[in-house]
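Case study: Ribosome hibernation promoting factor.
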Amino acid sequence: MRYQISGKQIDVGDALSTHVKTQLGETIDKYSQRPTDATVIFSRNAHEFICDAVVHLSTGLNVQAKGASTEIYAAFEQCKERMDKQLRRYKRRLKDHHKDRVEPVAFEAAGMYVLAADEDEWETQDDRLQPMIIAEMETRVPTLSVGEAVMQMELAGTPLLVFRNEKHGGVNVVHRRDDGNVGWIDPRNLG
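Here is what the predicted structure looks like once written out:
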């Protein structure tokens, strides 16, 4: 597994890097996943250290966790425990969903734009609001089943996930609703 361990305005020493590689490797191996790479970023917010970790699995799924504490090692331990909890919760589903899959999860490139949050920065043209584009990036849209999409959204800790439905190839969205349930948007099911 490839590791990328870095710090934002923090010097990450060899001892911490070795600790992260050993502990994170044990956590992933415990659930017999096949990780391809891991990114761990340490940062500081006032008096707290923050540890953000993302592990990419060979199945195409990502596991993401975050921890915060007044000590850097404790922040990593909290992050690792959260990742362990996620993997434990989804262990059976991760194995079941991918045992019949012949090929890894396919991804397609898609455009992603960040729009200005302040409406004062939006241009008015012919009485239509046109938001200012702040950033233009590329993202990947996976081809998944609905169950896999919900699991990926939960593992990544994101509020929504856009994916291509493997049954019919259409673009779908799963999202976390305000009431705590998961919503699924499938434009093909209209009518």
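For the exam, be able to explain this: Residues 6 and 12 are 6 Å apart (CA to CA).
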